[in-house]
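Quick note —
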Amino acid sequence: MPATVRLPQRLLLALCLSAGLLAACATHTMDVGPPAAAGLADVADAADAADAPVLAAFTSLGFYPAVVAPHTIRLDLPSEEAFAPGSADLTVAMQRSLDAVAGVFNGPLLRGWQLQAVGHADDRGSDAENQEMSVARATSAVRHLQARGTDAARLGADGRGEREPLATNDQRYGRALNRRVELFLTPGAGPPAVAVQR
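Predicted structure written out below.
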C-alpha cells in the first residue's frame, strides 16, 4: 500500500489551486474552476518535482508563488502597501514580506538558486521617470535582502516602468497595486535574466 502524505488543509488548498491555475494557463482557457482532484500528485504533474518544495515553502508563509516558465517561480509581494507614490522606500509591510522571503531563500532549500527583483511603477510621471523609479524599487528590495544575509552574487534588479500594470491607473487603489516589486526565482549560477511577462 502506498504511503499517505498528510498536508495542512491550507497548504493543500493553495497547492491545488496553483496546480489548477497552471493547468488553465497552459491550455489558454479562461475557465478557472476547481482543480480536477485535490492531491499532491496533481501538484507534481503541474510543476517540476524540483519546484514543488519551493512552491510549498512560500505558500506556507502566505505567498502565492507561480511557476511562470520552466524552473522560474514568481513571487508577488503585497503591492497595495508596497510603495508610496514617487518613492522607492520600502514600507514596513514590504520589509516584513522580504524578511520572510530571505528566511527561505537563505536556507538550504534554495541553495544554488538566484533571485531577480523586478520593479514596477504607476503611470504618474514620464516613461523615463517611471523606468528609473521601477529600477530603484527593485534595488531597494535587493538591498534589503542583502541586509538580511543574502549573497549579492545571487541577486539581480531590473525595472519595467509602467509597462506591466496589474490594475487601471485611473484610480488611486489601482495605482497603489501597480507600484510593486515581483521576485523571480531560478536555479543556477548568476542572477537570472528574467524575460517572463504576465
